[in-house]
Amino acid sequence: MSNIIAFLPEMKHQVKGVNQGVNQGVNLNNEVNTSNNSDRYNQLQGNEVWISVSEGVNLIRISKVAIHKNRKAGKYVTQLVQGNGGMQCRIALSSLPIDAQMRWRKEHGFVPEKVEELPEKTCKPFDEMSEQQRQKALDRYDLVTAYQKAIAKAQHGKILDAKESFIARYAAGELPVLLERLGVTTWKTIDLWIKTLRANKGQPSCLAPSYRYTREGSAVVGISMEQGEMILAYYLHGNQPKISEVVRKVNRKLYERGAEQVTERRVRRFLREYNINNEAQVVMAREGEKAYNDKCAPFIKRNNDRILPGDVMVSDGHKIAFQIQHPVSGKPMRMMLISHQDQYSRAILGWEIMPSENTAAIASSLRRSMLWLGNILTGEDALAFVPRVMNIDNGKAFKSRYFTGLKGLTMEAVGGFGLYDQLKPFGFKGVNYSKPYNGQEKTIERFWGNFAEMERSMPNYTGTSIAMKPAHLRRGEYMHREIASKLQLNTAPTIAEAHYLIALWMHENNLRPTSKTSKIGGKSPYEALEEGLVLLREREKELLAERLISRDELTFLMMPQITRTLKRNGITLFGRNYFSPELHDLAKGQRELTVRYDFDRIDGVAVYHPNGEFICFAQEYCPNGGIHPAAKFLGTPEDVAEYHKAANIKNSLHRATRRSAKTGLLNAAEKGFTPLLQGEVMPDVVRQQVKAAEEQAQKEAERALMTGTDGGYRLTAQEEQERAVADCKRELEYYSSGDEDDY
Questions:
Q1: Count of Cβ atoms closer than 10 Å to residue 63 Cβ
Q2: Would 40 be classed as within a structural domain?
Q3: What distance in Å separates the CA atoms of residue 619 and residue 622, rounded to the nearest whole number?
Q4: Looking at residue 243, which CATH number applies to its domain?
Q5: What CA–CA distance (Å, rounded) separates 520 from 514?
Q6: Can you tell me the distance from the alpha carbon of 285 to that of 268, in angstroms, rounded to the nearest whole number?
Q7: How remote is the C-alpha of 268 from its chain's centroid?
Q8: Who wins on pLDDT, 19 or 334?
Q9: Helix, strand, coil shares of the chain as percentages rounded to 5?
Q10: What pLDDT is recorded for position 407?
Q11: Range of the domain at 488
Q12: Number of domains into which the chain is organized
């Protein structure tokens, strides 16, 4: 009844239809024929149609029990009416599902039944078709033939099961050739092909696809030129819109112009054909230049047999996918791994770990690579082997002034040659910089995929991407977080420990055989390197020694060269002061000196005159940011030692400077270069008299100290008389005052 009460506000518009329905029902039950005066649609515009439960079963296609269960649950609008045998339940047609309403309208003639029209006989003969259309028509005909044979064996009532079974077997590969050419289809599509064949008297050519497009993308059938231009304008965009979005925008624009709209199926067919004929343009317009370079552009094939070990060295940086302790702050972070690889053998020659990709890391990795290659080639630790060509990344650190030097006349004026220019006398030829986002130019990019194996073996692995993050770092994974905490998976190694672990893995990777399809033909990098070095010795012969450089000379060449102004505390570099006694006497604040430093020995720098003359090797002065202010009382033994070291340097310089100045003044005086008044020079006779007078005065001063008298001073007669008169006056004043105790 609650449903009826909720339905009452709308009953005033439906009373007429309800009364007509009830009266007609009663008359029919009494076998009385009455005429139906309602309109053709049974007043569906403003009235409700009520059906019996049996009709609802046929329309909804569920049981009576389910109908009553849904009715009691309030899913349908119902009412009770007087009928044959008592009260009967009626269901409102508008409360039924849409498909059930459409069935009722179709059964009662309110919606004209759609008459399926067979395709017109417009198929072309095979002679007028392309080879692709002809082949597809024959393949479809073969599939229809196999389909009809399978259905013909089916029993009555099992035809639908036979159709579904055939499609399942076809999709599983029962007809592999047809499946490869036509793809997966449905039995409804095959039934449509059968009707098309019947309408065309069984001619296989009618099954050929009727759509075709030109190479420029304009539609020959289905899509006009205007529609095609509009579709491409929306589709070829860097935001990569979906085809459904393109269809909506195109139809909106066509509606505004009053033109015929397009269907999504036609647009998809049009764009599919356009992509086939214009793939490069589509990729460039929608995905950009990198995607075009990776997918469409032809690549240059390298012949690895034209080079030998040491000819080409490849360098690149990689952000390590596990955390390492920062050497200063101690906080865990992902650091950069700079590696150098021999392109011939694919062996990693050297590497360096740094918090960021900087010049120091690159130079250290290059130095280790050349030393290691020289050791393998000659068996000596003190020799390095210089490569001929470097293939490196286009990063800012790889193009720094340290490597490339100053450009133009400035380089010739100040001698600002970069490292690459300084290595040319040893056989170095030049550098190839890779293009941005073009990893194909650097063969070391493939190595980073192998290095991910080592990264995944670390307990604090962070993942190479967001999708590859370990479970305990993902949101909501409390169980894995607890396990990671108990297993201490967040513990980060130090840089030294990371170097050791990476060295073990690098050695194992260089011993691992590669695939037979690789550039080194299934050999390990070490094996390829050894075989290549044999060929290198045969090729170079006497010229091999020209590419060797000693460790010390290499260290000197790799020391960066910059200019710094000399100050009181020496040279200031990296926030540190570098001082040497040789810099003490040079002018401060006015002299620009050339400084060379080694990344691996930052505790000292080499100082040169601007003309290239070596001055000294300056050590760090007052290290660790300065000396403890109260090192003697509050500092550690190391602080006390640093204070004494700095104080000794200062005191020794003070004593040496004073001694040198005194010696210089006395030497100048002895040589007669000491100026007197009016610029005259003291003769030797006067100098001897002055010296004798000074000695006599010194003796009298010593005698006065021994006797208690001032023997070095004599009073004149007048001064003695004046002193006597003053003494008499003082005595008279004393006796006249009577204060004898104060005398």
A1: 10
A2: yes
A3: 10
A4: 1.10.10
A5: 8
A6: 18
A7: 35
A8: 334
A9: 50, 15, 35
A10: 61
A11: 459-492
A12: 5
Please say whether the beta carbons of 442 and 318 come within 8 A: no
Beta carbons of 576 and 623 less than 8 angstroms apart: yes
Paired tokens of 385: 């082997």
Beta strands 389-392 and 332-342 are unpaired
Listed residue (502, 582, 76) closest to 324, CA to CA: 502
Which residues, 6 or more positions from 529, have their beta carbon under 8 angstroms from its beta carbon?
A: 309, 342, 344, 345, 347, 376
Contact, 448 vs 315, CB < 8 A? Answer: no
SS3 of 685-734: the string is HHHHHHHHHHHHHHHHHHHHHHHCCCCCCCCCHHHHHHHHHHHHHHHHHH
Are both 58 and 164 inside the same structural domain? no
R_g over Cα of the chain: 52
- Note whether 22 and 140 are same-domain residues: no
The answer to whether residues 332 and 416 belong to one domain is: yes
476 in any annotated domain: yes
The enclosing H or E element of 669 equals helix 637-670
Tell me how far CA of residue 315 lies from CA of 250, 364, 458, 478, 598, in angstroms: 50, 12, 24, 41, 20
Q: What is the pLDDT of residues 615-633, one digit of tens each?
A: 888 888 888 778 888 877 8
Mean pLDDT value across the chain:
79
Per DSSP, the residues of 492-528 read PPPHHHHHHHHHHHHHHHHHS---TTSTTTT--HHHH
User: What are the backbone dihedrals phi and psi of residue 595, each rounded to the nearest 5 degrees, phi first?
Assistant: -125, 135
Contact at 8 Å (CB) between 281 and 291?
no
pLDDT band for 719, please (50, 70, 90 cuts).
low
* pLDDT score recorded for residue 737: 54
Helix (H, G, I), strand (E, B) or coil at 394: coil
Look up the pTM and report it: 0.55
Phi first, then psi: what are they for 342, rounded to 5°? -80, 120
Would you call 335 helix, strand, or coil by DSSP?
A: strand
Q: How far apart are CA 93 and CA 48, in angstroms?
A: 7
* Residue 522 reports pLDDT greater than 70: yes
End-to-end CA, the chain: 140
| 159-187 average pLDDT score | 90
Angle between helices 359-378 and 525-540 (to 10 degrees): 70
Residue 376 lies in a domain: yes
Within 397-443, where are the H helices?
Answer: 401-404, 409-414, 419-423
Q: Are residues 470 and 417 located together in one domain of the fold?
A: no
CA contacts within 13 A on the Cβ side of 348: 27
Amino acid identity, position 146: A
Residue-wise pLDDT for 564-601, tens only, equals 888 888 888 878 888 888 888 888 887 788 888 776 67
Rounded to whole angstroms, how far apart are CA atoms 371 and 381? 7
Residue 433 burial (CB < 10 Å; 0-12/13-18/19+)?
middle
| Residue among 236, 296, 247, 293 nearest 269 (CA) | 247
Enumerate the β-bridge partners of residue 337. Answer: 318, 353
* 565 in a structural domain: no
Residue 9 has pLDDT above 70, yes or no: no
User: Do 189 and 268 reside in the same domain of the chain?
Assistant: no
